[in-house]
Amino acid sequence: MTEIKRSKALHITLWIAQVLLAIGFGLAGFMKVTAPIEQLEQSGMSFVNDYGAGMVRFIGISEILGALGLILPAALRIKPILTPIAAVGLSIIMILATIYHVSNNEPIVGALVFLALTSFVAWGRFSKASIQPK
């Protein structure tokens, strides 16, 4: 496979990862921002018991902003460097989530999958398939 085909395949794969991550983080963040804390607790988000409502809302807002950052700068080609920066920010959220789940003997597979995908987007958009500004 030629270098151009590999680059195009990586670019497409990164876009797929970005869209899936944006949907996942956007929905999770929207739920954390809008749902009552009691409802979040019942839906399986055990961390709401250990953190105040303000922190839960802050995490939700951060996830929404990260989701927007994965798509808008790259799609509009306005400051596209913000896309891998958003991926790094979401990676940090997932590292902290993984630490929380490990310390509470909870499953970490989901957090690790999201961490791997956000890390992949950050790596790809920083170095291998960066998007040039207009």
Summarize the structure in words.
With 134 residues, the protein is an all-alpha fold. The chain has one domain. Helix content is 78%, strand content 0%. The protein has five helices and no strands. α1 packs across α5 and α3 runs antiparallel to α4. It is elongated and about 50 Å long. It starts with a helix and ends in a 6-residue tail after the last helix. The mean pLDDT is 94.
Give a short synopsis of this structure.
The chain is built from five helices and no strands.
SS strand fraction? under 5%
Quaternary assembly: single chain
Q: What's the tally of helices?
A: 5
Helix content class: over 70%
Q: Gap between N and C termini, in Å?
A: 29 Å
Order of helices and strands: HHHHH
The tally of beta strands, per DSSP, is: 0
Structural class designation: mainly alpha
Overall tally of domains:
1
Mean pLDDT: 94
Shape: elongated
Q: Could you tell me the radius of gyration in angstroms?
A: 16 Å
For the biggest sheet, the summary is: none
Q: Which tags fit this structure?
A:
0% strand, mainly alpha, 134 residues, 78% helix, 5 helices, single chain
